[in-house]
Design a protein that fits this description.
This protein is α+β, with helices and mostly antiparallel strands. It has helices at residues 14-25, 80-94, 109-117, 129-136, and strands at residues 5-8, 29-32, 35-38, 44-49, 52-62, 65-73, 99-105, 121-126, 153-159. The strands form two sheets. A seven-stranded mixed beta sheet has the order 1-4-5-6-7-9-8, sandwiched between helices. Strands 2-3 form a two-stranded antiparallel sheet. A hairpin with a 2-residue loop joins strand 5 (52-62) and strand 6 (65-73). The radius of gyration is 15 Å and the shape is globular.
C-alpha cells in the first residue's frame, strides 16, 4: 500500500537535502572509489508522505553507467526505498545506461540485504578502501553498524 509520492529534486530542495545528508551521512560529501562528490548537488528523487519528506535518493550518470550515490528512507517497510531505487533505474534506462551500480561498506548488512533482494549483485570487494577514503573524508568513523570495523567497500550492480 503506497501512501507516498516520488518526485524529482528541485532547486528549492537543496538546503533540506544538505541537512538530511548531514544527519544521515555525516556530510554532504560522499566518497566512492576514492572520488568525492557533493551529493546535495546531484540529481535525484524525494519521497513525500502527507506533505513531509520521508526519503531521498541521489545518483550520477557517467556514460552508460548510473551510480546510486545515496538512498535513505525515514520510514521502513512501506516501499519507499524500493520506489526510490526504481525511480533511478527508470531514469538510467531512459538515459541509455547499461548498468546501475553502487558502493556500500562492509558493515552495512541492512543495505546488502536490501540491494540483493532487488536484483543487485555483488561484483567486487575492495579490501581496505576506507583507509583511502578517510584521507579525503576524515569524518568517516572507524566503526559502523553493530560495532563492525569500517574497512572495505563492496560494489553491487544490476544490468539494465
Amino acid at each position: 500500500m503506497e501512501s507516498f509520492t516520488i518526485r524529482p529534486i528541485e532547486k528549492e530542495d537543496r538546503n533540506w537535502i544538505a541537512q538530511f545528508l548531514d544527519r544521515h551521512w555525516g556530510s554532504t560529501r560522499i566518497v566512492t572509489r576514492g572520488q568525492v562528490y557533493l551529493a546535495h548537488l546531484l540529481p535525484g528523487f524525494i519521497a513525500e508522505q502527507d506533505g513531509e519528506k520521508v526519503g531521498l535518493v541521489t545518483y550520477r550518470i557517467d556514460g552508460e553507467a548510473c551510480e546510486l550515490m545515496t538512498i535513505n528512507s525515514t520510514i521502513e517497510g512501506q516501499g519507499v526505498g524500493t520506489a526510490l531505487l526504481e525511480a533511478v533505474k527508470t531514469v538510467a534506462m531512459e538515459e541509455g545506461c547499461k548498468r546501475l551500480w553502487l558502493i556500500t561498506t562492509n558493515d552495512n548488512l541492512k543495505a546488502l540485504r536490501f540491494y540483493q533482494k532487488r536484483d543487485l549483485h555483488i561484483v567486487a570487494v575492495y579490501p581496505g578502501a576506507l583507509d583511502a577514503s578517510r584521507k579525503v573524508k576524515p569524518e568517516i568513523p572507524l566503526f559502523g553498524y553493530d560495532g563492525i570495523p569500517l574497512r572495505d567497500e563492496i560494489e553491487l550492480e544490476m544490468t539494465l
